[in-house]
Amino acid sequence: MPNDPSRRRFLKQGGIAALAGATSAQAFSLKNPGRDAQDPRYIGDAKAHYAMVIDLRQCVGCQACTAACKVENAVPKEQYRTFVSEFEIGTFPHVRKGYVPQLCNHCDNPSCVSVCPTGATFKRKDGIVVVDSEICWGCGYCLNACPYDKRYFNAQTKVADKCTFCAHRLQDGLLPSCVETCVGGARIFGDQNDPNSEVSKMLATFPTSVLKPHQGNAPQVFYISLDSRLEAVHEATPMLDDVVRKELGLLDKEWPKLPRGVS
Amino acid sequence: MMEWMSTIAAISPMRAWGIDVPNYFWFTGSSAAAFIISSFAHVFGFKQFKPIAGFSLLLAFVLLVAAPFNLIDDLKQPGRLVNFFLYGWENFGTSPMKWGVLLLIAYPVLILVEALILYRPYFIKRMEEGRGFSRTFYRWLTLGRASLDAQSLEKDHRLGFTLGAVGIPLALCVHGYTGYILGAVHANTLWHTPLMPVLFLASAMVSGTGLLLVLLPIFQRFFSLSQAIDRSMMATLAKLLAWFIVIDLVVRALWLSFAMPFGMQSRELLYQFFSLHFNMVVYVEYGLCLILPMIVGFSKLRHNLGIVIATGVISAVGVWLFRWNTVIGGQEIPRSMPGFTQYIPEIFGQNSIVSVASNWGIFIALLALVAVIFPWDEEMETHYQGVNNGSK
């Protein structure tokens, strides 16, 4: 029976037909339809490599970036794509404040991308890491893989969401909204591939550091004058008080739920 | 520590995985263990496990069919399940979750085929006795091979051995990949160790054997033909459990004795993590749920049926707690804000206590269905009559 010539012929022809169908049909590319179709939103500016420099000497912790981002990207209540963590350092009378503005680092080696089982999150040619909200099935692997906690489930779309460097604005020749609104000019954004861009000049002029370099993600958000003690706080102890979280009652409902009243 | 530093404002990050995920890991692990115990007889030729090999195989199948419902429930967009199959294959090498597609399909199919071959003679008998739909149904289950001559039986035996032998690495992969899912996350201090798949496999053997110690007496006492519990089998399984616990403890000792003193950034956080959960981990997870069952298994207490059943329960529960402490505990560890996050599961709705209870409901319903369709009781009885001459 296994050597029946007609059966062999059928299998052979069927196999070839199936292979031809699989390679020609868009639906069977097994990647991401938008990327396969070379949709500009999925590819970005192939010549550029975007990066951000955050000059902490200029940051006053006003949270204007936080607000601008929420408005620009319609980020749901109690969710944030960017935020400025605020710390108090020292004891009276020698006290000062420390700020760490944080957003997606658009890593060159993004751990959120490599673990994504649906290919919904990927890195564009210009370095921006985005999520295809039509493909994402909300498994949350990327949320767990991000060493920076810069992903969340959007309460409205019910899929993974994050900063996009305002890719929709870049497409129109505008700056990301957090950069445009920053009162101290602490956020500088641009194309690293262009040596005349402000971001390239800043990177060439000042020593910079990135968050958690040991994770090997090669973040593309660089800090000037980052106090390493502030970064250490992010892997710190339960002893550190968090006034705002306590005040807002976030401690009671931080994990299991998407925020209420927005979906 | 930095007492001189305090936080004024930070945001609480969202964590992704809730109670469904530890439950899923527990189910796949127990399935792998049940399959391996069944293979003791089918592949390695340990005759003393013959009577429970069929039952154990069916249990492995049911556990694995019930397990993925947890994952679907954990999804924020369960309606997009098909995207998992259509897209994202470029990440196959780096996303252990992707491996699950192949494993979760191949493994239950393999167990099912092995079970159908194992029970084929019984299906033929039922087919011949049955009429109408029942006859057709059992003919399907024979996979179209209705002969019972020596050659066919020999072929069954050969196929059973081959499927069992292929199934062992597959069973190890099915649970090992869940360990990879966590182990691959380098952002998570508790998870990121190459020992994670081994840890999961070792503890899975404990939970699978524990579950057998609970289900076997129930099925033998109430649903088998002789309605008698095989006490010597229970004692053998209790001792097997004790050996699995030894392996589990060794792997855990390797893990912690490496991560705690020699870990780089992880060291401090792990100390805090285990201080926070000290009572649960040390007294409950290790003392009550591992050391105590190990003592029972290695002592004469293993001949006491009541104690052995209780041992099965607590060791299975203990492994569930280990899954919980690993999956949920790992996500409690801070990465971008000060302090550990907290998780209290919802009672109703998606990813809740009720959804996990419902999953157990699915498991029990499927187990009942499979136990009705497959003549495990007749098959079990033949081994007792043939091997032990009915002495129980």
Explain what this protein looks like in three dimensions.
The complex is a heterodimer of chains A (263) and B (392). Chain A is globular, with a radius of gyration of 23 Å. Mean pLDDT of chain A is 85; it is low at 23-27 and 256-263. Chain A has a 4-stranded mixed beta sheet. Chain A is α+β, with helices and mostly antiparallel strands. Chain A has 11 helices and 10 strands. Chain A has helices at residues 5-24, 33-36, 40-43, 64-73, 111-115, 141-145, 167-171, 177-181, 198-205, 228-233, 243-248, and strands spanning 50-55, 83-89, 96-102, 121-123, 129-131, 152-153, 160-161, 187-191, 208-209, 221-224. In chain A, strand 6 and strand 7 form a beta hairpin. Chain B is globular. The interface between A and B is large, with 72 and 67 residues.
Describe the structure concisely for a colleague:
Chain A: It comes from Sulfurospirillum tamanense. The complex is a heterodimer of chains A (263) and B (392). By secondary structure, chain A is an alpha+beta fold.
Shape of chain B: globular
Strand adjacency order, main sheet of chain A: 8-1-10-9
- The number of E-state strands of chain A comes to 10
Mean pLDDT of chain B comes to: 91
The count of strands of chain B amounts to 1
Specify Rg of chain B, calculated over alpha carbons. 23 Å
Helix content of chain B: over 70%
- Helix/strand class of chain A: alpha+beta
Largest sheet of chain A: 4 strands, mixed
End-to-end separation of chain A in angstroms reads: 59 Å
Order of helices and strands of chain A: HHHEHEEHEEHEEHHEHEEHH
Low-pLDDT residue intervals, each spanning 5 or more residues of chain A: 23-27, 256-263
**Beta-strand percentage of chain A?**
15-25%
Greatest interface? A-B, 72 and 67 residues
Number of helices of chain B: 15
Q: What does the largest sheet of chain B look like?
A: none
Radius of gyration of chain A: 23 Å
Helix segment tally of chain A: 11
Q: What is the average of the pLDDT values of chain A?
A: 85
Query: End-to-end span of chain B in angstroms?
Result: 63 Å
| Poorly predicted ranges of chain B | 388-392
InterPro entries (chain A): 4Fe4S_Fe-S-bd, 4Fe4S_Fe_S_CS, DsrO-like, ET_IronSulfur_Cluster-Binding, TAT_signal, TAT_signal_bac_arc
Keywords (chain A): 4Fe-4S, Iron, Iron-sulfur, Metal-binding, Molybdenum
Domain 4Fe-4S ferredoxin-type (chain A): 50-80, 95-126, 127-156
Protein name (chain A): 4Fe-4S dicluster domain-containing protein
